[in-house]
Design goal:
about 450 residues; alpha+beta; about 10% strand
Length: about 450
């Protein structure tokens, strides 16, 4: 009976019988009845599977080559850590201690401040290798200088003392954890290399070399990366800020940003008054003075000057109202955030739906921050998004108020590139508020603002 599988051969015909049952590939039957071909039979498939398992399993040569490479890399990295801990950490620790001791004699500026600066460089290097080699993130907790003297700034920063404590601990810990991977692999190689010589010299201790060398080499690829990560974890425990320090850092940064924003806002108000309303009012006074001189002799020209003064006064009044709205909109003070946002939507050239579901009014500073954040986001929608419609949704949950400004524009908004939303985020940070942007290319865009209720 002829098989259904196609069988091809050079100089032969279709294979038949049970000889082809084991294979499902291409074969040929020779004149002597021997089946030859490249078929993949059941036995062949099992063999291939077992071969693949052997090539990718725990005991495969490829797996051990990978482990050996990881162990060698850990040994090299550990050596770098040990060298830096010894050659950089110890001298900087001694220099910092000497500068600290000489502070009453004026040695702080000469020794302590430069030493702490170099310590921060080494600590920054530790943060980088912890992230790149072990995946351990270590936050940077340094306080901003904020106009203080360099020595006063360094002495008053808690991160300075954490860095010095890390140097003190890392000198022995970095040396030990850094050299252990290399030591383990090196002793293993030495133990195995000494076996032939010990065996040939009839030394009764050569089995100890075998008993130590093989386990050392076997464990080195597993232990080495773990020791490097342990060093990074020790560094994170000492260098990373605690909750209180992180809070102090955040408050200091937001205070400085709030001060800068307030100064910038004052300069903007002064500029707008000087270039706008003040110039208009000066023109009004000049027109009234000229009209006073001409009212008896040239009444027609005096009337024209009075009309010009009235026009300037109207423009000045409009500019003052705009300036007041930029400082604190009257509708916000009188009727609250919901009606103020509805007024924004009413003035928009595109349709804007407003949903407001907050049962009580926020404190005035938070309400103002929320209003200006939404106003800035809506202004960006009108300027850059090309949207046909937008939506403002405000709700409260778990003691926080969340506002979302959504539009169907082309997207691509970037919080880091623009100045407006970045300034809003700094202002919100003063109230523990947050601002996030989700704007994929092609849209839609969603700007979410969140502030605590109190």
């Amino acid at each position: 009976m002829t098989e259904s599988a196609s069988v091809a051969g050079s100089g032969g015909d279709a294979g038949s019988g049970s000889a082809a049952v084991a294979g499902t590939g291409i074969g040929a039957r020779t004149g002597s009845g021997t089946v030859i071909g490249a078929g993949t039979g059941a036995e062949t498939g099992i063999g291939a599977q077992s071969g693949a398992g052997a090539s990718t399993g725990f005991w495969s040569a490829a797996a051990w080559r990978h482990r050996a490479s990881a162990g060698a890399l850990a040994a090299g990295r550990g050596l770098v850590i040990a060298v830096v801990s010894l050659t950089a950490g110890v001298p900087l620790l001694v220099l910092s201690a000497l500068g600290l001791g000489l502070l009453p004699l004026g040695g702080g500026v000469v020794l302590f401040a430069p030493a702490v600066g170099m310590v921060r460089v080494v600590a920054g290097w530790q943060r980088r290798i912890a992230r790149q080699w072990s995946g351990v993130e270590i936050a940077v907790p340094y306080l901003p200088r904020a106009g203080r003297g360099r020595l006063r700034w360094l002495l008053g920063d808690p991160a300075t003392w954490r860095d010095l404590l890390w140097l003190l601990v890392n000198a022995p810990a970095g040396m030990a954890l850094g050299l252990l991977p290399l030591t383990l692999a090196g002793w293993g190689l030495v133990g195995l290399a000494s076996i032939p010589g010990l065996a040939l010299s009839d030394n009764p201790f050569w089995p100890f070399g075998l008993g130590f060398g093989l386990p050392a080499l076997a464990f080195a690829p597993f232990v080495g990366p773990s020791l490097i990560k342990a060093q990074s974890l020790v560094a994170r425990a000492l260098l990373a800020p605690g909750d209180t320090s992180a809070r102090i850092t955040t408050l200091t940064e937001t205070r400085e940003r709030a001060t800068d924003d307030a100064e910038a806002e004052l300069r903007r108000i002064e500029r707008d008054l000087h270039d706008g309303a003040q110039a208009r009012l000066a023109a009004v006074g000049l027109s009234l003075g000229m009209a006073e001189n001409l009212v008896h002799e040239q009444p027609d020209e005096a009337i024209a000057l009075l009309a010009e003064a009235r026009e300037h006064s109207g423009v000045a009044l409009a500019e003052l109202r705009s300036l007041v709205r930029g400082i604190h909109p009257p509708v916000l003070a009188e009727r609250g955030l919901g009606d103020a946002l509805r007024a924004l939507a009413y003035a928009s050239p595109i349709p804007v739906d407003v949903g407001y579901e907050v049962p009580s009014r926020l404190p005035a500073p938070r309400e103002s921050a929320m209003y200006f954040a939404v106003a800035e986001a809506l202004a960006n929608v009108l300027k850059h998004s090309g949207a046909g419609q937008a939506r403002i949704t405000v709700s409260s949950n778990a003691g926080r108020v969340t506002a979302e400004v959504w539009d169907d524009g082309h997207g691509g908004a970037d919080l880091e590139k623009g100045q407006g939303l970045a300034g809003v985020r700094r202002r919100l940070a003063s109230f523990d508020g947050t601002l996030s942007v989700d704007s994929p290319i092609g849209g839609p865009t969603s700007v979410v603002v969140e502030v605590p209720c109190a």
